[in-house]
Amino acid sequence: MYCERKGKDCYAEADLEFLVEISNVLSHSEDIYKNLEGLLENLCKFLRAQHSMVTIVDSNQERIMISAAYGLTAEEKSRGTYKVGEGIIGKVVESGKPVIITDVQKDTTFLNKTGAKKPDGQITAFICVPIILRGEIIGTLSIHKTHHFDIDLSRETKFLNVVGTLIGKNISIHRKHIEELEELRKENLRLKSSDKPFKPDNIIGNSSLMHDLYQLIERVSPTNSTVMIRGESGVGKELIAEAIHKASARASKPFIKVNCSALPENLIESELFGHEKGSFTGAIAAHTGKFEQANGGTIFLDEIGDVPLSIQVKLLRVLQQRQIERVGGNTTINVDVRVLTATNRDLEDMIKAGTFREDFYYRINVFPIYVPALRERRADITMLADHFINKLNKQNRMNVKRITGGALDMLMMYSYPGNIRELENVIERAMILTTDNVIHSYNLPPSLQTGVSSNTVGSGSLDLLLGKVEKQMIIDTLIANNGNMTKAASQLGITERIMGLRVKKYEINTMNYKHLSNDNS
Predict the structure, then answer these.
(1) What is the pLDDT of residues 423-458, one digit of tens each?
(2) Could you tell me if 136 and 229 lie in one domain?
(3) How far apart (Å, rounded) are the C-alpha atoms in residues 49 and 46?
(4) Cβ-Cβ contacts under 8 Å for 499 (sequence gap 6 or more)
């Protein structure tokens, strides 16, 4: 084509047509890297080149790799990996400037890492231009072109710069899209795994108070801190201790339980620390104590409030120095033991009365955990009742199928001075008495028939009691609906506005109940 304005050959129209064509291909491409292969083939045909390739700089700026090529085998492509500054491609990435080599055979900087064969008897030129986007070099575009004599390659170089700009813009868009998809994938995995609320597998309960308790267990379990578990008799303090041990790094080591109130005062020292042969009457052999048995693991001292003052002194030494001495022995034994304690007694009052050492109290009260009474988490009664029915069916070879609504209402009204242990006994008694494999209200003990007869009538003003019930109902509904206020309001039969006012009134954080309902199954 002859250009009258310049008075010489002009390729502008053909170049423009080709650029418009590849621009359309790139902009409508769903897979930029797949379509690049075809684009490079058309580019080689248009420029009468033999090979062409696009390299991409990885996100860490450590490697430059071939992402698409024409005229190279898969093996040759795999060999095309460069460091920044290495070879022609590495230098173009480093400098951001095009490089033109008219004869690769005579240029020592051309590494030919791919090992692609060059046509015999012909001179091969190599042109490499940077792919730049917003000042960042993201890769290179290059061609191999054979010729018989020295030629001017400036047109090809300018043309490659324009093509490289088009490719760079589209690669950036696709790379950003891929990165966004990868972030979404990671976020999805994070929500499914790491952000799933911790829940011990040996504890039943999904009320708000229990979820608060689970968070405390999750925080303290990985540490070696001494934990004091407090709560009324029958709330399951031993299960909390087991959960802490199982969630700790000591889970594979021994978990030794000691009921301090069940040990006679003259034997408790021997049981805890062991004794040597002949140390006292009846000591016919050496005995390993509970602390030695728990070495590397966890020891749980239940009813710590019943430990005599003389033993408290020795336990204080264990906690401070991690050392024991057997009864009748002189050898100091080092022990690596985590100590968990539990009590239902008022240790503070015992300190005032002089029956519990204040220094020992502060040593075991490093991380106190309060286990709520069953009457404080009535929302868990239904779940616990079902659990005990399933457990006792297997244990006693029964086939009780369900509990009636009337019986369940009675269970919910009772205040359980004996807590979970009492609930289990109530369920077991009812299962024995039923004649049709269904627990009815008349199968329950008389103490549940009326709150007055068992001295379990709730105290407080009517507004206060109704408020407690309302708050618990809202929390339980939020849990069932993954914290969704709209769905919870609909289920409760109130407007979203009323729901919002109640949530604000009771200072309920709805975010705490996201992704909890999956744990109810």
Answers:
(1) 999 999 999 999 999 998 889 888 776 543 344 445
(2) no
(3) 8
(4) 474, 485, 488, 489, 492
